[in-house]
Amino acid sequence: MDIKKDIRFRVYIAFTCICVFGLAIIIKAAMIQVKEGPKLRAMAKEMHTRFDTLIAERGNIYTEDGVLLSSSIPEFDVHIDFSVIDSGLFAKNIDSLSRCASRLFADKSAEEYKEEFVRAYNEEDKYYLLGHKMKYYQYEALRSFPIFNKGKGYGGFIEDSKEKRTTPYDLLAKRVIGEFRDSNITGLEAKYNKELIGENGRRVVQKSTGNVWVPIEGSEVDPVNGKDIVTTIDINVQDVAEHALMSILEKYECLYGTCIVMEVKTGKIRTLVNLGRQTNGSYWEDYNYALSPTEPGSTFKLVTLLSLLNDKLTNVDNIVDAEGGAIRFGNDVMKDSHLGLHAMPIWKAYAESSNAAFAKLAYTYYRENPTKFTDHLKALHLDKPTGIDLIGERPTRVITPASKDWSNTSLPWMAAGYNVQITPLHTCMLYNSIANNGKMMKPYLVSSIKEYGKEVKTFEPTEIEQVGDSSVVAQIQKCMRAVVTEGTAKGIESPYYTMAGKTGTAQVADKGIRYTDGVYQGSFVGFLPADQPKYTICVVIRTKAHSAAYYGGAIAAPVFRMVADKIFSENIGAWGGPLDSLAKNGSGSIPARAATARNYRVMLNALDKHTALPGENINRMMELKTDSSKHMTVTAKKIYRNIMPDVTGMGVKDAVYMLEVSGLQVTVQGKGKVRGQSITPGTPIIKGQTIILQLS
Q: 490 in helix, strand or coil?
């Protein structure tokens, strides 16, 4: 009996312990559910769902003509997870997959690809790299191949897409457009990065069978693509400027060069070329030299002349004595590059670029109050950035009598372009103000911002300063014309249009270079046409040490001329002259090299204008002839209906077409142009009759 009680007692104790333990589990579960439940549920959900970022497309960069300068294209890295591919699927399709890969990549045979795929499959490689930086068409083809067309869950196809920024014109305007990389953003890409980059979207994806992540419907927040930037760059002129500058740099092995083209009335930068010599002797858009300050040399004489004229201290017809081209100031002597100049009008001293004359003028009129002179530099905004819409414009250096670097030679040396540092863009902006009747315009590179093709922001021209009244501007324009007609740039002018400008040659002493090293900076800056300026061009070139050519008139002026010729050919009809005469009168003459597509359109419009009115028994055709001097004459020639035309001198195709349209049967003898015709011009045409054309 005692044994039974003992057993029963033990059972009760065991049962009680089990009940207590069960109750503890229930209490603990309840506590977890209440206190830690939300956190644990979130963790569980996170293991099966996630947020994916939807990358916004970066905006494009265009010219005003709609030419694409920079855009984003997708690149793909493709990996294969062989561990998820079914053995039957692999065995059935491995041969065809190997052949497809061999054809697509053309780097290995089908047998080699098969061997590699089999090895990766046997090793259950989960991240086998099949393609790196693949183009979109390669990616699309690859994902359609056998096995891979089953996707990630069954075909093991894993893609990683990235955007690559590309510039279709490669080197052209590359420094202006800039680069877009993770660690390096430059140029317009950097300045307008906020507008270009857009706003990323996101979506929730959920893990499904086979570790495949599937988007949850309705969870997407669409990305907002970046806006497009429309630049002021003229890609045709940019191309010519780059080649023109490159030709001079290569010829003389120069260190670097820059060329700027600015639209006079607006301040739009139509061209900005920056080329620097590389260690292998080639040239690249490696640095924005247009925004780097240097001692400008003789182009700075414009500032001295502006100061004198604005202060009404003299005029350009007054006489200045250069004293043989060597004048002592303090302990130093200011010399001209060519000695022998004496008394002459100021305009002549400007045309001959006399350092001695301009140093003397500044010293004579401002030595008692040099601050008055340096105040003019500030008034011309030479002591501050131009404000162009590019990052990286470096500060200029303009000293004053209050500066510790000021000495008794500072004033005369500044007058000739030394002891002061400004950028080529400052020089271009200053000369552009003379072309623009004294109105200084802020230079800019972007004309508008567009979103899905619609303008959302437009940038208008900004006037900064009036640098001088009409009398001052007229006198300076006279000096600049003299530079081209009889001064240091004599011989540069084209017979087809006028120009005005200024040469500059300066010894270089910066960045570890000393004056005695024989490095020079040659410049030419001017505008065209001289009577009604449309464009200002600034060319600045730095030579190698002891270069055979270093004067601005020898190395910079030829680049100016080549770029100016291109601009003239692009605008010949809009500036009046020969094609304007054609449009008005039906005849005109232009240089053959100016016969661009645009000018042919002008010719056709002129022809259309001079076509007979309804009811008149007359038509007209365009006749083009080029003489021995490569001058093209354009004439709207009258063609009377039902009257035999004179086709001598015409090409055979044009002659045959004209005669057959008139109802004649044409027989041709010989080769070349039409030398004679069997039916006399001016006689009535009989439909169906035969005419024989004798060719030269």
A: coil
